[in-house]
Amino acid sequence: MGKFAEADAEIAKIFICKKCKGRNKAGVAHCRRCGYKALRPKRREIRAKK
CA triplet 26, 33, 42: central angle to 5 degrees? Predict the structure, then answer.
């Protein structure tokens, strides 16, 4: 989690398309760019670089 609760709440509303990596609003059935139906929620934690 980040420093700002408001920002974390907005990030939680974003879904990412598994095909084209496009950003979508929460609650949509398919991607707005390519129409693909497999969406995943955006990661909430920041991953460390290797």
Answer: 35
User: What ranges make up the beta strands (E) of 1-50?
Assistant: 14-17, 23-25, 39-41
Q: What is the pLDDT of residues 10-46, one digit of tens each?
A: 888 999 999 999 999 999 999 999 999 999 999 877 7
What ranges do the domains of the chain cover?
A: 5-41
**9: Cα within 13 Å, side-chain hemisphere:** 3
Entry field: residues in the chain = 50
* Residue 12 contacts residue 43 (beta carbons within 8 Å): no
What is the value of pTM for the model shown?
A: 0.76
3-state helix, strand, coil in the chain (%, to 5): 15, 20, 65
